[in-house]
Amino acid sequence: MRHDDWFNVTRLSIAAAAALTATLLDTPRAQAPQQQQQQQQNPPGPIVYPGLVDGRGKAFFFFNDGGQRGGGRGGVQVMTLSTTAWTDGGVIPIKHSQAGRDVSPALAWTDPPQTATGFVLLVHDLDAVNQDGATSPLHWLVWNIPATARSLPEGITHGGELPDGMRQISQSGPYYRGPAAPASGPPHHYAWELYAIEGPIDVPAVGAAPAATRTAVWTAMAGKIRAKATLVGTFKRN
Fold first, then answer.
1. Domain spans of the chain, in order of start
2. What are 143-166's pLDDT values in tens digits?
3. CA separation (Å) from 9 to 27, 37, 103, 188?
4. Which of 5, 129, 152, 201 has the fewest Cβ atoms within 10 Å of its own Cβ atom?
5. First to last CA, the chain
6. Which CATH superfamily hosts domain 69-235?
7. Using CA atoms in the order 18, 189, 52, 133, what is the torsion angle rounded to 10 degrees?
8. How much is the pTM?
9. What DSSP string runs through 36-102?
């Protein structure tokens, strides 16, 4: 399958996933006991809904907020996320990879909801799965991005908590970790997902394993997501 065809199928898969998410998470409040049972079966966090796959037949990961979509304040808006480093669906420059200088790219976004109190950024590999078989490799997770922010500069410094209050981790530490798909295989597709949230996320960046911190942030986001934007880039080593 050509890249353009795969990308279009992937877009459709994401749309299908979003549609099913809306159906699953917009259950009327009159069914609260059923919601509670569903939440026990599917706790907040990154999950896979059976039957939803991308263009290569691999399961799609996306966010489950425990049946509290929008916290009763309506649906999740769509934002736009972009970078000057590549076009959506294009090749990520080597300097932003582990094969280069491992520099985080400059990002910008538009159309956040007025009620947002902050942003969360997730960067993960859509073409790989961790040993747990349920989560994708974490290249970057940034939370407590200020509500007034509309961009992130290139080259965010290392550290669990930055001067403006932002916190960050990756699978290997409190910093951005770039793509690293091997040269022996096809390019991997990396998703950059920005969430606008309403409410605090009081999760420290250090003191626990990155996987545990990721789960804690995801759990804290439940019921607080107001908007989302996605940017995709591809990469493989030369």
1. 69-235
2. 999 999 999 999 999 999 999 999
3. 28, 33, 30, 15
4. 5
5. 21
6. PEBP-like (3.90.280.10)
7. -120
8. 0.73
9. HHHHHHS-SEEEEEEEEE-TTSPEEEEEE-TT-GGGGS---EE-EEE-SSS-TTSBPPGGGSTTTT-
